[in-house]
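1st attempt posting a full record on here, be nice pls
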Amino acid sequence: MNKFLSIFTLFHLSILGALEVVPEKHYYTVGETAVFNISLGGKRGAKIIDVKIHGNREDSRELRLKTDDSGKAKLEVPLYKPGFICVQITDNGKDAFGGIAVDKEKILPARQKPVEFEAFWSKIKAELDHLAMQYELNEIPAKSGFKAYEVKLILGGEGKDVDAVLTMPEKSVPGRSAAIALFHGHGIDRVSPVYKKDVIVISVNPLPVKHDGKCGVTIRDPKGKYYMYRHWGADDLEKNSFVAMFRRNYRALQFLKSLPEWDQRTLIVYGASQGGGQALAAAGMDPQVTFCGALVPALCNHGGFDAGAESGWPRYHETEAYQNDPDKSLKVIDFVDAAFFAANIRDAEVFLSAGFIDRTCVPSSVYAAYNVIPAEKKEMHDELCGGHQTRKKAYEKLYKLVDEHIKRMQSGFNSVQQ
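the predicted structure (as tokens):
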């Protein structure tokens, strides 16, 4: 019976085919008309389908489109300003997407960096610079050849401390190890030991909660302590969750640099989604960072929506605080816009990725950050058919670049047998 169902399912899928939205090309300029070829797959016959066009306000709309007898249609979208267009079609409860870029090199943050931005973050950094490094280490089982520790960096008690996992080679030589700070995506249940030969790695919990494998519930349960933390303090810097998060990130870098095993020259930060936004903030705060990797980074271009574009996650414009008083909210969330931190990354090597059909960290918000990075050595990886979770090739490229960076930075060291 099961075998029959499997064969029937495969036969059924082969007849129906797959939904497709295929742009005739992926890169356009303002004034052109983008063309998307739509197919329902298989022999569906003529049908009316739902279409959503996501992008700048001038472009965004919903419409109904009729296919021909072969289940195909062509959609034309005039292009008015730099940005990204994502076409979404829906048929029988299933979706397909296709994305294009429009003068991507001209996309910029929607708002100006606040005049007080540097002073605000310089004050926070100065406070941490003068705060004695206090921490607790608890050794935990580790992979052969390594040591691993649960780490708590003391910053004032519950709700403020940094919780992380640290790994290092078992036979580390003082002054010889590169250091990596790994930042994580939305949630608090992803921190675990990360091992890399000859490298110190700290995996930082984005929230001040010790990892126990169960903490993720608290961001999904309306009664949980950290439920909807991404929207906290949308109009109040004192309560904003990302001000506190970036503060903890900076402390994690200070901790890494205090370790005697660190080589005093190679400091790497990377992450994806919310972790990518944290990596941009960390590199923008600490000029000693030598490499920054941010895959589909969140927290970019919060003011995009107000300017008729799209904002990256966490989309503060959806909060009650923003809707009640947009001007007040914008003046707060500007201080946690990763694009403004990115503008401070001058000396590090930088690698970013953007997914053309990413509806979480929209590509226009990523490019708003990328285009203002002044670093001489920077690279963007475009995932032409990539959504928010399509990051395999980007990760492969990131890891390769990290290895090459470490090799270059440590080229003056004599080889050390571990």
